[in-house]
Amino acid sequence: MDAPTSRIILTDAFESLCEEIGEKFPDLEIHRIDADDFLIEHAKEAVQKATLTSEKERIIILSAKRFTPIAQNKLLKILEEPPAKIHFILMTPSKSGLLPTIRSRLVIENRLGSKEVVKSGVDMGKFDLAALYKLLQENRRIDARRAASLVETLAKEAVQSGCYRMDDALLESFSQGIRLLDMGSPPGFVLTRIGLKLLQRKR
């Protein structure tokens, strides 16, 4: 980071990155709001911190695994027209959970490490409705980035197993699933959709 400009940083290493920002800008006031789920009350707190009277330049770091749409809408105006000497840094593992209106207002910096390979834990030769239900239960809290990796894994395992009638429509369903995740569709919905497509094509 060359200057304390407002931005979105894609990362899952919140603590180390906050330390890095503190070391890079030791003369600035830094405020942090951390949450697994960034809710409307967190957004209100961020707006309140940003509008406090202060002569010092400030960075407000908002870090969360997920930002709820209602909280993002609350942040829109202040991100578009922040008070003087205020810089916002949003940290989250995946841009797919952010509204297009938020993404369009801030520079996106990718600080994610190497791509994680997510194992499916599925025996593709014995995949049935019960196995699909188990897969959905095991991944009910999965985020969009990990869900996209899981979709890629399922596609590779399905091809390698030879247990499915692989055609353009099935392959396209995997690609479409990743696009849906990137647009903010719930991971559970996408995984259910792909699981049912696989069951339809099982030999």
Structure commentary:
- The structure is a single chain.
- This protein has 203 residues and is of the alpha/beta class.
- The chain has two domains: 7-110, Rossmann fold (3-Layer(aba) Sandwich); 124-201.
- Helices cover 48% and strands 17% of the residues.
- It is built from eight helices and five strands.
- The chain has helices at 14-24, 40-51, 69-80, 100-103, 129-138, 144-161, 168-182, 187-201, and strands at residues 7-10, 29-38, 58-67, 86-92, 107-110.
- A five-stranded parallel β-sheet has the order 2-3-4-1-5, with helices on both faces.
- The chain is elongated, with a radius of gyration of 20 Å.
Count of β-strands? 5
User: Per CATH, which architecture of the largest domain?
Assistant: 3-Layer(aba) Sandwich
Report the C-alpha radius of gyration, rounded.
Answer: 20 Å
Determine the mean pLDDT. 90
> In percent terms, what proportion of residues is strand?
15-25%
Name the poorly predicted regions.
Answer: none
Structural class: alpha/beta
Q: What's the CATH H-level superfamily name of the largest domain? A: P-loop containing nucleotide triphosphate hydrolases
| Principal-axes shape call | elongated
Briefly, what CATH class of the largest domain? Answer: Alpha Beta
Distance between the termini: 53 Å
Q: Report the helical percentage.
A: 40-55%
Main beta sheet? 5 strands, parallel
Please, how many domains?
2
**Spatial strand order of the main sheet:** 2-3-4-1-5
Question: What is the string of SSEs from the N terminus onward?
Answer: EHEHEHEHEHHHH
Number of helices: 8
**CATH fold name of the largest domain, please?**
Rossmann fold
